[in-house]
Amino acid sequence: MPIKTADLVDTHDAETRFCHLPLRLFGRRRFFHGRIATLRTFEDNVILKRRLEQDGEGQVLVVDGGGSTRCAIIGDQIAAIGHKNRWAGIIVNGALRDVAEIGAMEFGIFALGHSPKKSTKLRIGTEGGVVTFGNVDFTPGHWVYADDDGILVAPRAIHEDARG
């Protein structure tokens, strides 16, 4: 049963923060949630790929790509790595490519948009720490909930409260 962000806002509005950024949902998985893991990079996907190669254990990787849509930092191969390694989904303040292939995957990725241009491979970026975009602080260990209605962040898991 999906966890709907609209229902979470109805029951936990004071605890949640809504990401005010026009991110689009790509992939067949129309909802996902999990503990937040973060990284920062700009037009480079080496650390992103390396992080997704680790077991995600149901976490959501939140990537501050600096808002760039000039080139894609996620493509179908990197998305497939994340899916294989049990990441719940990805939220990227940046672009992806291979839209049709990602659209066929049972995986969810929020991104600002898409670009056919691939990223650099300079190993630029850092893992961990709070990343901020869309007027929301994404703090590692906090929870994120994402679906067609948008993205919510909470300091704790609130979905069990909503179901009980």
UniProtKB/TrEMBL annotation:
Keywords: Lyase, Magnesium, Metal-binding. One of its GO terms (biological process) is regulation of RNA metabolic process. This is 4-hydroxy-4-methyl-2-oxoglutarate aldolase. Catalyzes the aldol cleavage of 4-hydroxy-4-methyl-2-oxoglutarate (HMG) into 2 molecules of pyruvate. Also contains a secondary oxaloacetate (OAA) decarboxylase activity due to the common pyruvate enolate transition state formed following C-C bond cleavage in the retro-aldol and decarboxylation reactions. Substrate binds at G75, D76, Q77, I78, R97. Mg(2+) binds at D98. It is an enzyme of class 4 (lyase). Homotrimer. CDD domains: RraA_family. Its EC number is 4.1.1.112, 4.1.3.17. Pfam families: RraA-like. The keyword Nucleotide-binding does not apply. It catalyses: 4-hydroxy-4-methyl-2-oxoglutarate = 2 pyruvate; oxaloacetate + H(+) = pyruvate + CO2. The keyword Lyase applies.
